[in-house]
Each structure stands twice: as C-alpha cells, then as structure tokens.
C-alpha cells in the first residue's frame, strides 16, 4: 500500500500507483508552465499558490477517472491542468473577498501584494486555463463554461443569502453544489471523457464528483472550526470572522430556533457580534468546537460522502473504483 499525493490516497495496485504518480507529476509541470509569463512579477504572483502546494484533489480525480478508459490519452493531463488552474484562480478571488491572511500555509496573495494584484492574478489564471481548454475541443469548452457559470452563481447565492421562506441549510447545500461540486464534477467528467470511457461511466463519475465535492466542502467547513492552521492551511475561524454562514453555524442557528435554549442563543449572539478581536474569535471557535452543531455538520459530511460512494455502484470492480471509494472515506476523515 502506497500513499499517493498530498491528499493521502492509499493505492494498493502498483500499476495504478505508477499511473497516478506520473499523471500528478505531469500536471505539476503543466501548472508551472501555464503560469509562466514574460513579465517576471506576473510569474511570481501566478506561481505563488502553485508552489505553496495543495492537495491537488481535482487533478487526482481526473487521473483516477481516466482509468475507466485509456489513462494515457493526450487530453487527460491538460484537462487536469485546466481544472486546477480554475480552482487556483478562485482561491485568489476568494481570499480577496474573505480578506484572508493565509492560504495553504503561506501568506495570501492579497496580503502580500494587495487586492488588485490578487484579483488580476486570478484573472490571468482563468485566461491561461481558457487557452489550454481551447485545444481540447468545443465540448470541453462548453462543459467548463457551464461549470464556471454554476460556480459563480453559487458564490453569488451565498452572498445574497436564502430567499424568504427558504430553509437556510437547503439553500447552503445548493450553494455548495454550484460553488464546489460543479468543478469537482468536471474533474471526474474530463478524466472519463478524455480517456474515451463509455458515456454511462462518464455520467456516473460526474454524479460522484458532484456529491464528493459537497462532502469535501462540508469537511472544510468543519476544519475551519475544528483544526489549527497547520492542518487546514489557512487561519482558523476565517469564515466565522467574515460572517460566512457555514454549515456548523447554520446548524447552530437551526437548533437555537427549534429548541430555544439560552446557551445556544448566547453563542448565536456572539457569532453575530464583531469578531475582529482575536480573543472573541478564539472564544467563538472554542465554544463551537464543544457544541453539538459541529457534530451535526460532521454527520452531514458523512451523508454526502456515503451518497458519493453509492453512485459508484454501477461501475465495474477495479482498483480505480476502490481508490474512488477510499476518497470518500478520506474526505470524512478530514472532518474528524
């Protein structure tokens, strides 16, 4: 058994291990090449998060999905680079919106160079992704465009909040399907599609990616509260400080509304206050870590991971399928 990639996937088959390792290495080289510019400063800013590392979760899914067809097909590595570049670009923009100080264990681009450079660098990465995408054909361009529209729509809906009468938890899960699930679904779809896999396999893996993507983000929600910056790669409580209603907070509000317990309402009031003070933020994190709402969010993460696993049932038994099943467990493990 060998651990592959920074996400910690254990691969038992030597041939699959070699394919995945080779694919991820090629993607890494592709990312560095795609982020080069004739302007040294642009190269430095564009490669800032590439060189900081990361789980490379989306490229990993591309390489695993490609195992259901020809894993050496020429479009696989470029499509993985496209998906990761798109993801990286959104991180530059997210950090501006969140006013984040740390990303992937290093100083965020906006903290280092300012918001304007961070936004423009994200745009540069989108442009480079589009350039690579153009060589993959019109279907790939359309698929990426549709996913990107869903991603942006999810981000806007998160900012706008639920409509009157809409359950906040249902609204949030829809947001995550667009904001996170859409691009992870594309990673699985590109891998299968570029490898020439059967259309039914492409559909199954796309559905798997969507559900796994939601579970992945829910695990991040839990990590924002339950982990330190060494584990998550960003400052704990970033979402709390910015007033972003992640699932643990939504579950707390739901419980406060339904049970009316004074201690729940007191914690809601604390979260609604100004958390710019480090001591208050630390108090909020500590109290949420001990609250049942965090455990409920963990159970929600497990549910989506189990749904992702169930979608794989029609696929033939093979080492790649076993690895995709294990990824469901890995996502749950991240949430504790």
Spatial arrangement of strands, main beta sheet: 1-2
Beta-strand percentage? under 5%
Average pLDDT level: 91
Cα shape? globular
Report the span from N to C terminus: 23 Å
Number of strands: 4
Radius of gyration: 20 Å
Structural class: mainly alpha
* Biggest sheet statistics: 2 strands, antiparallel
Number of helix segments?
Answer: 17
Helix content: over 70%
Low-confidence stretches: none
The secondary-structure element order is: EEHHHHHEEHHHHHHHHHHHH
Overall description:
By secondary structure, this protein is mostly helical. It contains 17 helices and four strands. A two-stranded antiparallel sheet has the order 1-2. Strands 3-4 form a two-stranded antiparallel ribbon. A hairpin with a 2-residue loop joins strand 3 and strand 4. Helix 5 (76-98) runs antiparallel to helix 9, helix 8 (138-160) packs antiparallel against helix 9 and helix 13 (247-259) packs across helix 16 (292-311). The relative contact order is 0.11.
Reconstruct the topology from this structure.
Elements: E1 2-4, E2 9-11, H1 14-34, H2 40-46, H3 48-51, H4 57-65, H5 76-98, E3 102-103, E4 106-107, H6 109-113, H7 115-134, H8 138-160, H9 168-194, H10 199-226, H11 229-232, H12 238-241, H13 247-259, H14 262-272, H15 278-289, H16 292-311, H17 319-334
Antiparallel strand pairs: 1-2, 3-4
């Amino acid at each position: 058994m060998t651990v592959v990639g920074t996400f910690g996937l254990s691969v038992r088959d030597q041939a699959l291990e070699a394919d995945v390792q080779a694919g991820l290495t090629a993607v890494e080289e592709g990312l560095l090449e795609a982020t080069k510019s004739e302007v040294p400063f642009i190269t430095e800013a564009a490669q800032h998060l590439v060189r900081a590392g990361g789980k490379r979760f989306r490229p990993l899914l591309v390489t695993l999905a490609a195992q259901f067809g020809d894993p050496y097909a020429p479009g696989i590595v470029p499509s993985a680079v496209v998906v990761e570049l798109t993801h990286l670009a959104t991180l530059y923009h997210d950090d501006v919106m969140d006013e984040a100080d740390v990303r992937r264990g290093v100083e965020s681009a906006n903290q280092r160079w300012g918001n304007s450079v961070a936004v423009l660098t994200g745009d540069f990465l989108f442009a480079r992704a589009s350039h690579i995408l153009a060589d993959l054909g019109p279907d790939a361009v359309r698929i990426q465009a549709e996913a990107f529209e869903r991603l942006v729509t999810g981000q806007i809906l998160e900012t706008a909040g639920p409509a009157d009468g809409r359950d906040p938890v249902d609204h949030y899960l829809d947001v995550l399907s667009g904001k996170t699930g859409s691009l992870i679904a594309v990673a699985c779809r590109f891998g299968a599609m570029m490898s020439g896999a059967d259309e039914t396999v492409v559909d199954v893996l796309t559905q798997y990616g969507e559900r796994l993507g939601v579970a992945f983000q829910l695990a991040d929600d839990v990590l924002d509260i339950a982990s330190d910056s060494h584990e998550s790669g960003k400052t704990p409580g970033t979402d709390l400080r910015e007033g972003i209603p992640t699932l643990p907070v939504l579950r707390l509000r739901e419980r406060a509304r339904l049970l009316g317990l004074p201690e729940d309402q007191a914690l809601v009031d604390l979260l609604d206050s100004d958390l710019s003070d480090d001591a208050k933020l630390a108090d909020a994190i500590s109290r949420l870590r001990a609250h049942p709402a965090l455990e409920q969010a963990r159970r929600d993460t497990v549910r989506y991971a189990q749904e992702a696993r169930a979608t794989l049932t029609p696929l033939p038994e093979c080492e790649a399928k076993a690895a995709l099943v294990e990824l469901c467990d890995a996502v749950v493990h991240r949430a504790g």
